[in-house]
Specification:
alpha/beta, 10 strands, YaaA, Peroxide stress protein YaaA
Length: about 250
């Protein structure tokens, strides 16, 4: 199974890892796009006023321009430790054991705006860039990433894809149409048995808790049926919907 996670706008600063090595990230076929996007972001950071406008930064956020300027030389940390916010607080990767972290390292990617999908154990620096950005010198991120990311995911040897990304990041590289997959929407049970009321804050927390449970159980999942069987045993309320590629996580 391959798990696709969204990033978070909030991130931890610093790190103890070496500088960013784009050629060491997961999905190496994305290297050329990564180089182009990172170069454009660093170049933009040399023009603070332009950077603030393009990245939609307020006066109190302009320190993020310097963060982007140092993208290539800043210290790194594993991607799943870099991000904070509701989903990653629920995942609480820092309290997972070595075996659990290693399981996630084999099965999960975080879809970032500047680097595309990266392994959860890949070292990345802090940065500021949203999925909808358009950087001078490169196509809008949706156009830059969509084809290469979907092609890279096609090459991953995973019989089933669990897609927990937000729609903004799905737009940067949908799961290949031929892949067996489930896009997860978090809903509350409205009494109808289908769980139709979508949630926002609890959406992120539920996804983080789901990934933590998977890491701790380390199940072998090669199909949707395997995932449903694991969920039933783990008391996770996952339900299919009329759309075979969209599932509900009911909380």
């Amino acid at each position: 199974m391959l798990i696709l996670l969204p990033p978070s706008e909030t991130k931890r600063v610093g790190g103890e890892g070496p500088a960013l090595a784009l050629d060491g990230l997961a999905l190496p076929s994305l290297h050329a796009v990564r180089e182009d996007v990172v170069a454009a972001l660093v170049a933009l950071s040399a023009r603070p006023d332009d950077a603030a406008r393009v990245l939609k930064l307020g006066p109190r956020q302009r320190d993020q321009i310097a963060v982007n300027a140092g993208l290539r030389s800043a210290a790194t940390m594993p991607a799943m430790d870099r991000y904070t916010g509701v989903l990653f607080d629920a995942l609480d990767a820092g309290t997972l054991g070595d075996a659990e972290r290693a399981w996630l390292g084999r099965h999960a990617l975080i879809h970032t705006a500047p680097f595309g999908p990266v392994g959860v154990l890949d070292g990345i620096p802090s940065y500021r860039l949203a999925a909808g950005a358009s950087l001078p010198g490169v196509p809008p991120l949706r156009r830059a990433w969509v084809g290469p990311v979907t092609q890279a995911l096609t090459a991953v040897d995973a019989p089933f894809v669990l897609d927990l990304r937000s729609e903004a990041y799905v737009a940067l590289g949908p799961v290949p149409p031929a892949a067996a997959s489930a896009y997860i929407r978090v809903v509350s049970d409205d009494g109808s048995g289908t769980g139709a009321r979508a949630l926002n804050h609890f959406n992120k927390r539920a996804k983080g808790e789901l990934v933590r449970a998977l890491a701790k159980n380390a199940p072998v999942i090669a199909s949707g049926e395997d995932l449903l069987a694991w969920a039933a045993a783990a008391r996770v309320d996952l339900r299919r919907t009329p759309d075979p590629r969209v599932w509900h996580l009911v909380v």
